[in-house]
Write a structure and sequence with these properties.
alpha/beta; 12 helices; 2 domains; about 350 residues; Rossmann fold; three-stranded antiparallel beta sheet; L-2-Hydroxyisocaproate Dehydrogenase, Chain A, domain 2; single chain
Length: about 350
């Protein structure tokens, strides 16, 4: 039987494992930012004390007021306008970045880059000054290029910690899991590696648990392509009304909760697009999405998950590496052009 003394001891261990963090959502008034902020305001993980919302849009204080009426203990602050960006970032332990323009029909993630790169470069500079020790969770597309850009900005400022810079690829995993569950009739967990754009997204169905049962050939090709281009499916379905916002918000919130749990002292296994010496050796790319373990100081280990895939999947990885390398270089080149 679980004694009162044991219960008290367990509570003490839980308390020491948790910390109270300030999370800043940049782009909080947007299509992803609002539902993401809602989910974080409703967090039950016990790790968020305050939520700082920032956007250039003047409606941001209204978003903050709206969320503040939800009866949870998480305090909400809201800031609007470029002049208040640094104030919003003050004291942030985790900065989640869905800021930027959404994709429209016919647009690729690369088409977004010129606009979103400028937004992210200015934000990275502000973070380097105001909250240099924070963990940065980048949702802004194109992630494959924007994350390397962040690394250059933070490096120039002398505050780059590659263990705390993450490209959020959780939505790719959500899609692979969802499509697999529809086939298998039960929940399935699928690792998805590579990058976060088109064919750089490689689902490893051979490593899924349990196996979803896709037949090699046309069926496997079709579901693989659907994971790779699931974002296009949403863009087209919204007929010019936007891109994936609700699913991305859910994925972003889930990943944020994982990082908060890790920073609180627990070891968490997840998948994210990170600065990877493992990928550099294996594929010649500076950044790669693969399985990682994260602890209180950020990324602890990186696995070459792609190498564990079957021949079909390893071929997809080999074919996409040139594109991923080019997209990483695009982030570096933008940074160099601004110097």
């Amino acid at each position: 039987m679980f004694s009162t003394r044991s219960a008290k001891a367990a509570s003490k261990v839980l308390a020491t494992a948790q910390r109270n963090f300030r999370v800043c959502v940049v782009g909080a008034a947007g299509g992803i930012g609002q539902p993401l902020s809602l989910l974080l305001k409703q967090s039950t993980g016990g790790n968020i004390t305050s939520l700082s919302l920032y956007d250039v849009a003047p409606v941001t204080p209204g978003v903050g007021a709206d969320l503040s009426h939800i009866p949870t203990a998480i305090k909400v602050d809201a800031f609007a306008g470029p002049e208040n960006m640094k104030k919003a970032l003050e004291g942030a332990d985790v900065v989640v970045v869905p800021a930027g323009v959404p994709r429209k029909p016919g647009m690729t993630r690369d088409d977004l880059f010129n606009v979103n790169a400028t937004i992210n470069m200015n934000l990275a500079k502000a973070c380097a000054e105001v909250c240099p020790k924070a963990a940065y969770l980048i949702i802004s597309n194109p992630v494959n290029s924007v994350v390397p850009l962040w690394s250059r900005v933070l490096s120039k400022a002398g505050v780059y910690d590659k263990k705390k810079l993450f490209g959020v690829t959780t939505l790719d995993i959500f899609r692979a899991n969802t499509f697999s569950a529809a086939k298998a009739g039960t929940a399935v967990s699928v690792p998805v590696v590579g990058g976060h754009a088109g064919k750089t997204i490689v689902p490893l169905f051979s490593l899924a648990t349990p196996a979803p049962g896709f037949a090699a050939g046309e069926e496997l090709d079709k579901v693989t392509n659907r994971v790779m281009f699931g974002g296009d499916e949403v863009v087209q379905a919204k007929a010019g009304g936007g891109s994936a916002t609700l699913s991305m918000a859910a994925a972003g919130a889930a990943f944020t909760e994982q990082i908060l749990s890790a920073l609180s002292g627990k070891t968490v296994e997840t998948i994210a697009y990170v600065d990877s010496a493992v990928a550099k050796t294996a594929y010649g790319t500076d950044f790669f999405a693969s399985k990682i373990t994260v602890g209180k100081n950020g990324v602890e280990t990186i696995e070459d998950t792609a190498a564990k895939g079957n021949e079909y999947e390893r071929k997809l990885v080999a074919e996409m590496v040139p594109d991923l390398t080019q997209q990483i270089a695009k982030g570096y080149e933008f940074f160099a052009s601004q110097q």
